[in-house]
Design goal:
It is built from 14 helices and 12 strands. The protein is of the alpha/beta class and about 350 residues long. The chain has an 8-stranded mixed β-sheet with strand order 3-4-2-5-1-6-7-10, with helices on both faces. The chain has a two-stranded antiparallel ribbon with strand order 8-9. The model has no long low-confidence stretch (mean pLDDT about 90).
Length: about 350
C-alpha cells in the first residue's frame, strides 16, 4: 500500500487538478489496483471533478453532505472520530464512494472519500482533541485518523490499494492529518517566488530544515512533536513544474529564470538533507516533471470530469461556450502525465 499527498504551502499551483489527473491515469494504467482518492481540501475541487465536474459533480457532492452518520464524506468521518477519538470506528470503509457510479468516465477501480467544507469547521475541535493531556498518546492518535481510515479501507479490499490525498495549501490540522497518512509527497509548483517560499516552508514544517530562522520556529511545533511521537513523515517524492510557458517550443526566459531559482533551492536541500527524499541516491533533478500550460485542456477536464485518457481533441461546447482542445496541447499533456504516473 502506497499513499501520495499532493501539497504545496501555496495555493493556485494546480494541485487539485493534478491530483485528479494523476489518480485517474494511475487507475487507468493499473486496473488490478484499487485507487482511493481522499479529498482533504475543504473546497472539494478534486471531488467535484471526479463526480462529473460542473454542475453535475457539485450537485452530487450535496447528496453526500447530510447530517451525522449519513454524511458520506471525509467530514462525516472526522465528525464520527470526534465521538471516538482514540479508537477507530467500525465500518469506516462506508465513507468511500464508487466514483464510476456517478461519473461513468472514471475508471471502475477508483473510489473517493468525498471532500467536505465541514472539515474547516471541525478543525478547531480536532486540534483541541489532539491537545488533551489524557491519554498521553492523544496527539499521536488524533494525528493518525486519516492513516486509520486508509488502514480500514485496505483491510476490506482484495486488491492492493494506492491512495492519492489532495491537501489544502494551509498547514491546518486537517492538512497535518493528511501528511501523517502519506508515504510520499508530490509537490506541484508554478514558476514564481511564492512557490519557492511555499517549498521552503514545507521543508521547515515537516523536517525542521532549510532557512535557519524559519526552521527554528518549525522545530518547536509539528516537526518536533512528530519526531517525539514516532510519526513517520512522508518523503519528498516528485516535483511538478506546472503550467510551463513555451515560446517557439521552448520554455520562455522568464519561466526559466523562476524555475531555476526553485530548482536551485531544492537541490541545495537535497545536498544537505538527502534522507528526507524518497530517492536519496538519485539526482533530484531526475524527479522533476514539466507540465505544459494546458489552456483548454484543463477547462474541459475540470468542468466535465473527464480524465485525460478519455479526452479527445477538437471543439467542445461548455456552458454555451466553444472551447478548442488542440491535439498538440493534448498530446503534450498526456506525455507529461505518463511520465508522472511512471514515477509513482
Amino acid at each position: 500500500m502506497s499513499s501520495y499527498a499532493f501539497w504545496n504551502n501555496k495555493g493556485g499551483v494546480g494541485k487539485s487538478f493534478l491530483c485528479f489527473a494523476a489518480a485517474c491515469e494511475y487507475a487507468h494504467q493499473n486496473p488490478e489496483i484499487d485507487v482511493v482518492v481522499i479529498d482533504l481540501c475543504p473546497q472539494a475541487n478534486t471531488s467535484e471533478m471526479i463526480l462529473g465536474g460542473q454542475p453535475d459533480g457539485a450537485k452530487t457532492i450535496k447528496k453526500f453532505l447530510k447530517t451525522g452518520a449519513d454524511r458520506i464524506s471525509v467530514g462525516g468521518y472526522l465528525e464520527q472520530r470526534l465521538n471516538s477519538p482514540f479508537q477507530q470506528i467500525e465500518d469506516a470503509e462506508r465513507y468511500t464512494i464508487q466514483a464510476s457510479e456517478y461519473n461513468e468516465k472514471i475508471p471502475g477501480n477508483l473510489s473517493l472519500v468525498c471532500g467536505d467544507n465541514l472539515v474547516e469547521v471541525l478543525g478547531e475541535a480536532v486540534r483541541q482533541t489532539a491537545q488533551l493531556v489524557v491519554p498521553v498518546t492523544a496527539w499521536k492518535k488524533v494525528i493518525s485518523w486519516i492513516k486509520d481510515l486508509q488502514d480500514s479501507i485496505r483491510e476490506t479490499r482484495d486488491n492492493d490499494c494506492v491512495f492519492f490525498i489532495d491537501c489544502n495549501p494551509s498547514f491546518a490540522i486537517y492538512t497535518q492529518l493528511a501528511i501523517a497518512a502519506a508515504d510520499n509527497l508530490v509537490i506541484p509548483f508554478t514558476a514564481d517566488e511564492s512557490s519557492r517560499r511555499g517549498i521552503e516552508n514545507i521543508i521547515a514544517l515537516l523536517y525542521g530544515q532549510g532557512d535557519e530562522y524559519i526552521a527554528s520556529f518549525a522545530r518547536l511545533s509539528f516537526f518536533k512533536r512528530a519526531k517525539e511521537e514516532g510519526i513517520a513523515l512522508p518523503r519528498l517524492h516528485t516535483f511538478i513544474s506546472n503550467r510551463v510557458t513555451l515560446f517557439d517550443g521552448e520554455p520562455s526566459k522568464a519561466f526559466q529564470a523562476a524555475h531555476k531559482a526553485i530548482k536551485s533551492t531544492i537541490e541545495s536541500i537535497f545536498k544537505k538533507h538527502r534522507t528526507v527524499f524518497a530517492y536519496p541516491k538519485v539526482a533530484v533533478s531526475d524527479r522533476f516533471v514539466d507540465f505544459p500550460d494546458y489552456h483548454g485542456v484543463s477547462i474541459v477536464v475540470s468542468l466535465t470530469g473527464t480524465p485525460i485518457h478519455k479526452l479527445k481533441a477538437g471543439p467542445k461546447i461548455i456552458n454555451g461556450e466553444r472551447i478548442q482542445v488542440n491535439i498538440g496541447s493534448l498530446q503534450s499533456y498526456k506525455q507529461a502525465l505518463a511520465t508522472l504516473v511512471e514515477f509513482l
